[in-house]
Amino acid sequence: MADVIGPRLYSCCNCRNHVALHDDVISKAFQGRNGRAFLFSHAMNIATGPKEDRQLMTGLHTVADVYCSDCREVLGWKYERAYEETQKYKEGKFILEKSKIIKENW
User: Fold this and answer.
1) Percent of the chain beyond pLDDT 70?
2) CA dist., res. 58 & res. 74, Å (int)
3) Contact criterion met (CB below 8 Å) for 11 and 20
4) Record's family (predicted)?
5) What are the backbone dihedrals phi and psi of residue 4, each rounded to the nearest 5 degrees, phi first?
6) Are 61 and 42 in contact (CB under 8 A)?
7) Where are the beta strands (DSSP E) in 1-106?
8) What pLDDT does 94 receive?
9) Strand 25-32's sheet: what is its strand order?
10) Which of 7, 8, 25, 64 is least surrounded by CB atoms within 10 angstroms?
11) Per residue in 15-41, pLDDT tens?
12) Cα–Cα distance between 90 and 106 in angstroms, integer?
């Protein structure tokens, strides 16, 4: 019988706190502050900062930085509001920067 393996996860690069499930990846083709980033439908064990309007590559968005709930490392941001109709699908979703997360259970 094969070993039971838990879900594939992404963890904080700093403290290994679990922050997202691989199954919640929507896209790996996003740009973060420091390079490639992934768009997730959900994130866990995170805290959010204050909402602010930010001019991003795809237009003006209201976003809130997301932090690891254990070590407070900034991992990315949450899209709170998109002002352009073509960007509305991002609302409520999370950007986690590839350089800030590591794979677990792969």
Assistant:
1) 95
2) 21
3) no
4) Belongs to the yippee family.
5) -80, 125
6) no
7) 9-12, 18-21, 25-32, 35-40, 46-56, 59-68, 74-82, 94-97, 101-104
8) 98
9) 25-32, 35-40, 94-97, 74-82, 59-68, 46-56
10) 7
11) 999 999 999 999 999 999 999 999 999
12) 27
